[in-house]
Amino acid sequence: MKTIVVTGYKPMEMGIFKEEDPKIEIIKKTIKKRLISLLDEGLEWVILSGQMGVEIWTAEVVLDLKEEYDICLGITPPFLKQHTRWPEALQQKFELLCEEADFYQPIYQKEYEGPYQFKAKDQFLIDHSQGCLILYDEDTPGSPKYFLRLIRRYRERNDYQLFSLTPMDLEETVEDMRLTDPDYWNQ
User: Which CATH number fits domain 3-181: 3.90.180.10, 1.25.40.10, 3.60.15.10, 3.40.50.450?
Assistant: First the structure.
């Protein structure tokens, strides 16, 4: 698999309301661990639409991985100025990520007009990847359920890999962090 799309929850869906929330570090470490295993299997591109939350954090992880791995980042938002209604700090972060990405191109070269743009974005991402890594919990559907539903229909007729990050994966990361913390062993 050469190209994977990464998606998942928005921050507020996970109870994250500040950029300094320690849960973000856990999520990013979990994504990084999975991406490294996929890189070892031949992954070359990570593509995403640049939504707040999992997708922005994934972009940051990919840019960090570029220091050690040959990996490319593609950002394809559904329309122009997707980020203009976000908090200012996130707007700036998104703009910097787009500048550092290997590929940036909105699906529609116009601003928001309707939900059809999100559907087209989802289909574009699936059509241009061989698999998806999604942070998702079946017990807490949230916004990723629509993308997941589309992937499941697509998989009925196409060879497409689906990798999930679950609360169990996040808990495993927390435990790994705890065990590698020297203070844990000095108690």
Answer: 3.40.50.450
pLDDT < 70 regions, the chain: 184-187
Helix-strand-coil split of the chain, %, nearest 5: 50, 15, 40
Q: What is the pLDDT of residue 180?
A: 85
Ordered alpha helix ranges (H), the chain: 22-39, 54-65, 88-100, 116-127, 144-155, 167-180, 182-185
Burial 116-151, CB ≥16 within 10 A → b, else e: ebbeebbebbbeebbbbbbbbbeeeebebeebbebb
Triad 136, 78, 86: Cα angle to 5°: 75
Kindly list the domain boundaries of the chain, sorted by start residue. 3-181
pLDDT at 115: 94
CA 111/CA 113 separation, integer angstroms: 6
CA distances from 145 to 6, 34, 112, 149 (A): 14, 21, 21, 6
Q: What is the pLDDT of residue 7?
A: 98
pLDDT in tens, 59-92: 999 999 999 999 999 999 999 999 999 999 999 9
